[in-house]
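Researcher: I'm preparing a figure for a lab meeting and need a structural model of a single chain. I don't have an experimental structure, so a prediction will have to do for now. The sequence is pasted below. Please return the structure as C-alpha cells so I can convert it later.
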Amino acid sequence: MRHPFCLVLLFLLPVFSGAAQMETPGANSYSPLAVSSATPATVLRIDVVDQRRTRTIPLKIFLPAEEKSAPVILFSHGLGGSREGNAYLGKHWAARGYAVVFLQHPGSDAAIWEDQTTRRARRQALENAVSAENLQLRAEDVPAVLNQLAVWQKQKGHPLFGRLDLTRTGMAGHSFGAVTTQAVSGQRFPGKNPGWTDPRIRAAIALSPSQPRTGNASTAFGEVRIPWLLMTGTADVAEVGGISLADRLAVFPALPPGNKYELVLQGAIHADFTDSTVRQITRNPRYHRAILAISTAFWDATLKNDPLAGQWLAGDFPRAVLEKDDRWQRK
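Model: Understood. Here is the structure written out cell by cell.
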C-alpha cells in the first residue's frame, strides 16, 4: 500500500534523475526545464541559532554554480521530514540560478519518530507533532532564518557573503511545510492579528496545501496579496491528520484573483511531491517533470520578473508537461 501523508520521510535520495536536462516547449525560446551549466550546485549545511527562543534550526543550502547574488527560495519540509528531503527541487532550482534554503523544524522533524520501535509508536509521535504549537514554532523559524541569512550575506569571509538577494525571496513547502508556507505568506488565523505573514516573502508555492481545521477558508485566504502556486494530486490524502482531497482543493477557490495558480495531477499521491523512497513507492517520472517545469516558471515570473516565464504560465504551454486529465488553472 502506498503511503499517503507527509510522514513520508524527506531525507532520502531522489528517484528521478536527469529532470534538469529535459526541455519543455515554451513561449518562444523559454524552457523552464533547461539549464545552462552542468556544474552542480554547492551544498552548504549550517545551523541558525535563534537565541531569543533558544532554538537551533538546521539548514541545507543549494548555491548556484555562478558566484553572484541570487534570488532566495526557502523550503519547509513535511511532518517527520528534514532538511535532506526534496533535493530534486533544490538541485534544479539552484541550476536555474536560485539559492535554495531547506529548513529543518525541531519538534516536527525526523527526530520525533526515529527512536520509536513500533509503527504504532511512530504514528502516535507524528499525531502528537501535528499541533498548533509546532505550527507556531515553524512559522517563527522563517523570520529567524531570514534575519540570519541577511547577516551572513553581509559578513565578509562567510560562504554566503554576497550570494543572496533577499529582496527577491520566495517560500515553498510540502504538507506541514505547505501549511507553514501558507502561514507566513498571507493566511489569516482566527484571533491572531496580524498573524505570521512575513512581508519579505514575494511569492509562495504550497505542495499539498490544506484549508484550516477551524474557521472559514475564504476568511483564511481571502486577503493573500502575493502570487501563490498550489500543487496537489487526485489521490493526495493524509493518514495522519485526516486531510482529505477536499481540504486541499478548498484553498484555490478561496484565494483572491491575481497571479494565483493551481495544478492537480491525476493519480498523484502525497509522496509523489517528494523524493522519498519509503515503502518502495513507484513514482511516475512525469509528476516531477511537471512539478519542476511549472514551479520554475512560477519563480522565474515572480522573483526574476522574466516576461517569457509569465507568458509561458499565462498561455497553454504548461499543457506540454501535463496529461489531459491533469487540471491546470489560474486566476
